[in-house]
Amino acid sequence: MPPRRAADPTMDDTVRLARPPRKSRAKPLLIGAAALLGLIILTIAGWLALRPAPYPLAGETTIFRHVSPHFTVFRFRDDPLILVVDCPDLHAQGLMFDRVAALIEKADAPKNRVLSEAAFHARLAAAKLTIGSYYYGDDYPAHALREFFRLAAAEHLALNPEETHLRAIAQRSGFLRPGANGAIISIPQAGPSHRVSLRARAVILRHELSHGAYFTIPAYHRYVHHFYNTVMTPQEQQAFQSFLVRQGYDPGYHGLIVNETLAYLIFTRDREFFRASAVGLPPATITTLRRKFVAHMPDIWLKPLATAPLPTER
């Protein structure tokens, strides 16, 4: 054992342990946050990459002037909840929408099931109609499309390729989600072989856009019903209902009758499709009703179209 040293008052025998440097907690937190943010960004980027690009926005004139031999879908620029399906011709349009029309709007078709192809063709033959002459334009709110596809699935009913395409359009746009708001309208391409003139195409588009607004804008929906119920007389209401019933519309669907009444009265100012004599009312009555309706319309994108010239006239 080594000898002990004498105590040195200048020396301190206390053993001091050096405290290790404190590790900063901020750096790992920042690294973790950065990693989490990167993961979120990658997830969103992956989702966006897998999600189909939205349909292009277009206004009335652009849609009217569009020419294509294929189905083309636009979101209406002034109301993107309205999708416009530009169909190659009346026959293609009918293949996509006719059975929807039968379920939702036609008086002589069942309302609790979708007609089979055979049953639908039998009704066409009985009415002396064809797929291409059943309707010249179509318009359906999202909830009506959900009902059509729900019933078809419940009945294990096969959809034709065009109806399958329509379902994909509605699915991609979110219209098949419960409670989703939106509308799909359609117009046919113009041309001699399509039995649709350029002016007819413009008239159909204007008419169908008004239906789109009825489905997607609650204030306009309320105004249409208010005008029908409080401004139009019972005789005027009956005149329009009789006109619509002659075209096969279901008189038991009150909203349909109201919607079509105002679409014809205000937004179908073409003698080929609508005139005062068609409803048995004096032209002066039609003029007065139009003036009153436009004067108190909600200030929405549709209001200028009530009096604006058609795209063919610009």
TrEMBL record:
It comes from the Bacteria. Keywords: Membrane, Transmembrane, Transmembrane helix. The keyword Membrane applies. The chain crosses the membrane at residues 29-50. This is DUF1570 domain-containing protein. It comes from Acidiphilium acidophilum (Thiobacillus acidophilus).
